[in-house]
Write a structure and sequence with these properties.
Length: 481
């Protein structure tokens, strides 16, 4: 069987001199703790600390990066044991699903998924042969044996991965019971939540009515009136802050914001609640609510994240059978300059507000996003995201934004993942790419070596802590002077 090995110089520049500088920079940040301020892992894992049972359940079935590629090659999601809509599990032997995945592992050559999973296989599970049809059972059994041991329970891996903070993402209708259970357990792992109210803000969301009822129940507010609806958001935001949240998260199709009068807001809200809003009015309501969320962030100090530009659930048939987040979200062009103007006119000059902008439209990096973040005190640039969370995407991000926004108007790296075991791999890739980028600037005599060393630590820890209002634990203070 071909051997699996991770080259120590992977992702570093090919030029020997620049590579040597990158090695030195990386050595200073490789062992720093992980701050993961934006992700989608399941808090139930850490609340129960129950063992995962097999490789399919843990690594394959939850990861849309994997099964979207397999689906594109004609492989049915049921054959991969991917849950159907409503969480219904297909009658699929998980070992057979893993064998099918392993037989098609070659499809991932050159992709970030291959890089991340090879790191998981080699570093987390200690597997020394490459994955293919012949090694599928060896992988499955090795992983199953490991998962049965206490060292591979969720909390133990959290500590092994040296995670300083892990943020999950919950909706406005979530009762946060898993976060409450984590707190009550006495475990010291720092798992916090993030406020994601999209389903009670977007009138076109498929669960808008259902989630709105739950929203009213949990907040105890009259969400049938405009002022009661806003009060419900404030109440839920406070509930989330009690569970450690320092950020909100908003992912609509566009970045449009609005600044309507109170009377106009009330009239629009009445249309939305009456089910009479057309598509343009639904878009206007989402735009106004982004402005309202910024207003609330200025009040309560929560960092606001906006990541527009994904056409959700593009595959209607797959959405009908398997529901959301099944690999059928497709990027599209996104405009920011005029879209954000109403919100920025109100709050863009406020240094007490932090709004982090993400994009799936790379053409906006140099033309729109870097100039905006390079001017407005309230704006910061999120890292290369989702389809661009790759070595090439990370390099393009730095090359297209640094000359205008610099480094200090960015926020470090976040992994945005549901795949818990890939978190160290993803952060390692980001650290290597950033060190390579800094090394090039040193080699070109555009940065002094000490400046690059300081920046490497800032990009790893300092900027993310600042952007998300996080304080380093006293036992983990890292000098970032």
């Amino acid at each position: 069987m071909p051997q699996l090995s991770l080259h120590p110089d992977r992702l570093f520049p090919a030029d020997p001199g620049t590579r040597a500088i990158a090695r030195e920079l990386y050595a200073q940040v490789a062992g720093l703790p992980i701050v993961s301020p934006h992700g989608h892992t399941d808090p139930a894992w850490f609340a129960s600390d129950a063992a995962w049972t097999n490789a399919t359940e843990l690594l394959l079935a939850p990861d849309h990066y994997l099964f979207r590629m397999l689906y594109s090659q004609g492989i049915d999601l049921d054959a991969l044991a991917v849950p159907r809509k409503g969480g219904l599990l297909p009658d699929t032997d998980p070992r057979e699903a893993w064998r099918l995945f392993a037989a098609n592992w070659h499809l991932f050559r050159g992709t970030p998924s291959s890089m991340w999973l090879d790191h998981v296989f080699a570093e987390v599970f200690g597997i020394a042969v490459t994955l293919d049809a012949g090694s599928a059972d060896h992988y499955y059994d090795t992983i199953a044996e490991a998962l049965a041991s206490p060292a591979f329970r969720p909390r133990a891996l959290f500590e092994r991965f040296n995670i300083e903070l892990l943020a999950t993402t919950e909706g406005a209708g979530d009762d946060l019971k898993h976060h409450k259970a984590i707190r009550a357990s006495g475990w010291k792992g720092n798992v916090v939540t993030t406020y994601r109210p999209d389903s009670v803000i977007d009138p076109e969301h498929d669960s808008f009515a259902r989630d709105l009822a739950r929203f009213a129940q949990l907040s105890g507010e009259d969400v049938g009136s405009w002022q009661g609806y806003l009060a419900a958001h404030r109440k839920r935001r406070a509930d989330f802050r009690e569970m450690g949240a320092t950020a909100t998260d908003h992912g609509f199709l566009s970045a449009r914001t609005a600044d309507l009068s109170t009377a106009a807001c009330e009239a629009l809200f009445a249309k939305v609640m009456g089910g009479k809003a057309d598509a343009a009015e639904a878009e206007l309501f989402r735009a106004q609510m982004l402005t309202e969320m910024a207003r609330m962030s200025l009040e309560d100090g929560m960092t606001m994240q906006i990541h527009p530009g994904a056409t959700r659930n593009h595959n209607a048939r797959l959405f009908a059978s398997h529901g959301r987040d099944k690999g059928a979200d497709i990027p599209r062009g996104t405009e920011y300059v005029e879209a954000l103007r109403p919100m920025l006119d109100l709050f863009g000059n406020e240094p007490g507000l932090t709004v982090i902008l993400f994009t799936l439209d790379e053409t906006t990096y140099a033309r729109e996003l870097a100039p905006l973040a390079g001017h407005y005190p309230a704006l910061r640039l999120g890292p290369a995201w989702w389809f661009h969370d790759s070595p090439e995407g990370m390099r393009r991000f730095r090359e297209m934004t640094t000359e205008t926004a610099g480094f200090y108007n960015t926020v470090g790296f976040n992994d945005d993942t549901r795949a818990f075991l890939s978190i160290p791999a993803r952060h390692d890739v980001a650290r290597r790419i950033d060190c390579g980028f800094l090394a090039r600037l040193v080699a070109e005599h555009r940065l002094a070596d000490w400046e690059a060393a300081e920046l490497a630590q800032k990009l790893t820890l300092g900027l993310v802590r600042k952007a998300y209002g996080l304080e380093a634990p006293a036992s983990r203070v890292v000098e970032l002077a």
